[in-house]
Specification:
The protein is of the alpha+beta class. The protein contains 4 helices and 7 strands. The protein has a 4-stranded antiparallel beta sheet with strand order 1-2-3-4, with no helix packed on it. A 3-stranded antiparallel beta sheet has the order 5-6-7, with helices on one face. The protein starts with a strand and ends in a 10-residue tail after the last helix.
């Protein structure tokens, strides 16, 4: 059963800031294009400021993901891509402030080496230092790594048992081949 860890406000954080800074940037560019002589000198400072803020807002918005988790996998989705990462591939989980959670992976995914998402706002996490969603994710990662370790032990044991059985079967085949070679009993014929 999937549990959603990301906040419903993720969509708002991904759309409003880029629009809030992008639209004034576009308005300044349009005013410069329409009347380059009249607004060029007074518009460069606001253009630079709004352009920098637009780039920062777009960078922030592209990093945020929608995240859910089940017993074995972490699911992360952006606007275009969706990925599934085994929980055994999660290296660390930590929270920053009351809402931001960062997941570092053992190897890079389609979203890079880390996944950033907004959890439900929890002011108590500023006092405790860890968000409840991060604690839940850490527990599931630990449980999944324990499970994958147990599975590897079982697979290793089965492989060793197969090798022993194969060694034993080789000896039986070898004995049967010797018996046929040294056999003195020939085929029966009826007259």
């Amino acid at each position: 059963m999937k549990t959603t860890l990301s906040s419903a406000w993720t969509t708002v954080h991904e759309t409003i800031p880029p629009l809030m800074f992008g639209l004034p940037t576009l308005a300044i560019v349009v005013s410069i294009v329409i009347d380059p002589r009249g607004t060029l000198s007074g518009a460069l400072a606001p253009l630079g400021m709004f352009l920098a803020m637009t780039i920062a807002a777009i960078w922030w918005a592209t990093r945020l993901k929608w995240v859910s988790v089940d017993q074995l996998n972490l699911y992360a989705a952006g606007w275009i891509k969706k990925i599934s990462v085994p929980l055994s591939q999660v290296d660390t989980v930590y929270s920053m402030g009351a809402q931001i959670i960062v997941i570092r992976l053992r190897s890079a995914s389609a979203f890079g080496p880390g996944i950033l998402f907004l959890a439900e706002w929890d002011p108590s996490s500023m006092l405790t230092g860890s968000h409840p969603a991060a604690q839940t994710l850490r527990e599931r990662v630990k449980r999944a790594s324990d499970l994958s370790g147990a599975i590897q032990q079982i697979v290793g044991r089965e492989r060793r048992e197969r090798e022993v059985i194969a060694d034993f079967q080789l000896a039986i085949v070898d004995l049967n081949s010797r018996r046929r070679v040294n056999s003195t009993v020939g085929p029966c014929t009826y007259a």
